[in-house]
Batch of 2 targets.
Target 1
Amino acid sequence: MVNHVKNVVIVGGGTAGWITASLLKRILKNHIQITLIESDEIGTVGVGEASIPPMVNFNHALGIGEQEFIKKTKATYKLGIEFEGWGDPSNNYMHAFGELGKSFPFCDFSHIWLRAHKLGLSEAISEFSLNTQAAKSSKFAHLKTIPNTQLTGLTYAYHFDAGLYAQLLSEHSQAQGVKRVEGKVVKVNSCHMSGNITSVELHSGHQHNADFFIDCSGLKGLLIEQTLNVGFEDWAHWLPCDSAWAVPCEHSAQEILPYTKSMAQTAGWQWQIPLQHRVGNGYVFSSKFIDEQTAKNNLLEQLPAKPISEPKLIKFKTGMRRKQWHQNVFAIGLSSGFLEPLESTSIHLIQTAALRLIKHFPYEGISQAAVDAANAEFEQEMVQVRDFIILHYKLTQRTDTEFWRWCKRMEVPESVSKKIALFSETGSCPVKTEELFQSVAWQQVMLGQGIMPKGYHPLAEQLDEAQLKSLLESLKTLIETTVDKLPSHSVFVNKVVS
Ligand SMILES: Cc1cc2nc3c(=O)[nH]c(=O)nc-3n(C[C@H](O)[C@H](O)[C@H](O)COP(=O)(O)OP(=O)(O)OC[C@H]3O[C@@H](n4cnc5c(N)ncnc54)[C@H](O)[C@@H]3O)c2cc1C
């Protein structure tokens, strides 16, 4: 039995390990002793450069100021993701953060836009996204609201060097008292009676005892899987990509784009993530549909500029551990499961997992109720993100390669097919308030990949045709004039770092 938790050992010093150490130390202070073990010999996965907006507040919670973060991690700002060729090969759209247009009580702007579209009054819905328009003009500034209105301004996240981020967090948390140990764990000891882990042994022979262990050891899940065998739910039948080549390259232009690019490829997709000093690139692919060498060649041929290092191959399994918390082990990061980086969600999932652990922290011993609650929250979150990623593949109209034909044909979870069916009929896309991807995100992907709903909400009829036209014109002008006044993204970043 674990009665009190006083000593915590974190195995792993990648992004997951150091985010967890930083948050735990900052919130739980000296109530617990934290030791983090990381192995220089094993290293980290070495990718993971794009984030989503909650990271901005998370950094605040860690006590890291934006300027320090931007400087030390060579970060840039991110307004959304542009998807190239996902619907059909000639189609581009953006899943931008933030809101669309102006919503009315009980009636999303998308319904107003749908009505206008059916009347032939409106162009693409992206014309009414401030984030998209700023991104396409390579503009950025901090803007909470559109001046003189109550409309949301720019909602942003970051592109950053994850290795430098882990280093920054490592320095912060060690300064606050986290103990760092370098060494390779070669043996894990458990109690035969309780099944709890009691200690980990390093190659050097040192043994580290703890009441509670956090598994941040990466894809293999040293404690949660290799020791406690919790099992893995495999989602490869919905998300068939299982490999990625990653390679950084130089910048090809002076202007640094404030958005991620996701370009559909023969058997997967390619990312482009602009940082201050380089552009991150990668080809996420399914090894069932393309061999490694061809995928590597394809990536190198499509780079916007000269590569800076040799491409690195990463193999992964898509899915989740059946439990995030089992016995006295809580898994965070790649050890708890993996969803491909299409919507830049992994680091966010590390942050929510660390927050979940704090919420249920077993100061007075482990309660099964807390374990069950945390595992249920974990599963729900993973499934919701999984569904949103599946949506992108399912809605392809591409038939040019076997990979895309397979995606188009595949059976998807009912939770996805029901959303597609409802949106196609009514233009509605209800999601739960706690979901990471709200209706506005689903709408952009579904419209962007070619679904034009048959209907719209009757409340969209509350404006007559002339009022509708005038509303759309004024919104468009407002967005255009707002974007015009913004500085260029590169100028803004330079100002922050100088
Ligand atoms: C191709 C790809 C692209 C990605 N892109 C994004 C993205 O754009 N955005 C995003 O949010 N996420 C992305 N991710 C996910 C992101 O990289 C990870 O979530 C993040 O880096 C966290 O990794 P981690 O810390 O869990 O594991 P790792 O980085 O693998 O760290 C594991 C740690 O455990 C240590 N360790 C392992 N075994 C032992 C042992 N026996 N003894 C001692 N120490 C040990 C290692 O040394 C290391 O310190 C991407 C992932 C992949 C595969």
Note: Residues 11-17, 37-39, 42-45, 47-51, 162, 184-185, 216-218, 222, 244, 246, 282, 314, 316, 333-335, 341, 344, 346-347, 350 surround flavin-adenine dinucleotide (CB under 6 Å).
Target 2
Amino acid sequence: MLPVHTHYDHAMDSAVVADRTGADLVGGESTAYVGRGHGLPDHRIRVVTPGEPVSYGGFTLTLVESHHCPPDRFPGEITAPVVPPVKAGAYKCGEAWSILVEHVSGATALLQGSAGFVEGSLAGRRADVAYLGVGQLGVQSEDYLRTYWAETVEAVGARRVVLTHWDDFFRPLDRELRALPYAGDDLDVTMRVLDELAAGSGVSMHFPTVWRREDPWR
Ligand SMILES: [Zn+2]
């Protein structure tokens, strides 16, 4: 279980899911404090060194330090156990990761949870598929969108992009996904720029379908 950062919409249930599935909770110190506050035992919490690979079964995971997309509504690190019930703001951002995944089959992926970047941080890394978080991208400048694409999709040489974090996560998952209807984003703007970037570089791009298994490496 690897929250891409520790805002409530990514990390609030991470320890519960880890507990129910027998998984480890993996991340930085902020993630560890979420786990401890939710009663997950220490041996099930793994704090990584940024850039150093960790292995689980057939998967090798490398967490590279990234940035959250501005505006970060709850910035900073978590420095004490988060014991629920707490307000959403208790789940501060913590470390924002670009996660590189390699499977023994040779398949590789970049999981970019938040639409932020650290210039040059993914240089020299490779991933066939990019799961690209696009939340809040629609309110950034066009220049920001282009730089984000260059620092993520282009940097790792991905040939396929799956767009994530664009949907309204306050909606139950037994209903179809739809874009965030709030003023905090504009998916039409995001798609206009990303469609052009993808077409110009021969990258295929799609939205995932909820509950449907997919294989973007085929
Ligand atoms: Zn966030």
Note: The two ends are 25 Å apart (CA to CA).
